[in-house]
Amino acid sequence: MIELVPLQRQFQSIRQEMLQALADTIDSGKYILGPNVQRLEQEIADYLQVDHAIGVANGTDALVLVLDACGIGPGDEVITSPFTFFASAEAVSRVGAIPVFADIDPQSYCLDPVRVEEKITPATKAIIPVHIFGQPADMDEMMRIAEKHGLIVIEDACQAFGAEYKGRRAGSLGHAACFSFFPTKNLGTIGDGGLIATSDERMAERIRTLRQHGSRQKYYHSEIGYNSRLDELHAAIVRIGLTKIDDWNGERIRLAGRYRAAFANAPHVRVAEEKPDRTHIYHLFCIESDQRDVLQQALAGRDIHSGVYYPLPLHLQAAYAHLGYRPGDLPVSERLSERILALPMSAFLYDSEQDRVIEAIAAAQGDVAP
Ligand SMILES: *Cc1c(COP(=O)(O)O)cnc(C)c1O
């Protein structure tokens, strides 16, 4: 069986270091916001070239805390992508604001700046571009639009640790950025974790207070906050991953290159463009096909797992029925949801396994009506 993401292989490859980190954490007596969280925050700030990194409980909380720290709440609108994991919009709703969905660019699957600008109203406070599947969104345009309209830009970089945009790291491009260390993310742990990156000193201070019950000094609370901290043990594990992440991303990029070459002339399979000024770190490798379900079944018949990310765009989710969107409102996202298929991708996928995936797609194409 070929898994979509052979996750155990990744963690088994750092098993000894993880066991040592567990032993060290047990012996340290410091389990919450201890030295590993502090060091990880410094290491990631250095890696991203930002002034502040703040560990939190998960990527969703990272988004919620940034929105809250920016004072975004009821009556405010936040523009984001309908083609992403639910959390990108859920966080907006969680602080009481309204997610406004703008359609995506069919080449990169990221928010289309032209569509974003069309959705701006006097109530708009922020834009959340999502670096979907590991390729940064068009951040120069997002920042230009934000400046023109006085908006905050929050990067949802949960799928893009280590990706670059014009030589700068994803996560250092907006006013703040959110990361997730969920196990399947390209930099992950064996549980939940998240992080916020920003160079805005006041925002960083506010988030540090919010993540700890609105408290700067123990048992004194200046505001209503959250309990949203990155665990010491998970910080220790992410620190191990951080020493490998450039190699792991490099391997993903190499495997993506093999897929791209294999599908370059495939009649029924389309692979989205890589933008020339960005590095796509391939959190997921996706193809598009009119016969997506046939391909997925053909792969399953050979014991190869594939996945549909995402089968229903957010503006058509039941949870957002009250927003009043209709099928056809955001056609690029809707069409993509019917065509997209993620193939096995990981730094720990073997070339021989990938060859079997490529063969299976080629064989299935013979079965697919043109
Ligand atoms: C995973 C993910 C999140 C949420 O992160 P969690 O750590 O699972 O809360 C948010 N946005 C995107 C794009 C994600 O992929």
From TrEMBL:
Q: Which GO terms of type biological process are on file? A: polysaccharide biosynthetic process
**Pfam families, A to Z:** DegT_DnrJ_EryC1 (PF01041)
Entry keyword set? Aminotransferase, Pyridoxal phosphate, Transferase
Is Transferase there in the keyword field?
yes
Coiled-coil regions, chain positions? none
Asked whether the keyword Transferase is assigned, the reply is yes
Show which residues constitute the signal peptide.
none
Q: What is its EC number?
A: 2.6.1.106
Molecular function terms in GO for this entry? pyridoxal phosphate binding; transaminase activity
Task: State the similarity comment.
Answer: Belongs to the DegT/DnrJ/EryC1 family.
Listed name of the protein: dTDP-3-amino-3,4,6-trideoxy-alpha-D-glucose transaminase
Q: Which organism is it from?
A: Paenibacillus solanacearum
Upper lineage is:
Bacteria, Bacillati, Bacillota, Bacilli, Bacillales
Gene that produces this protein = desV
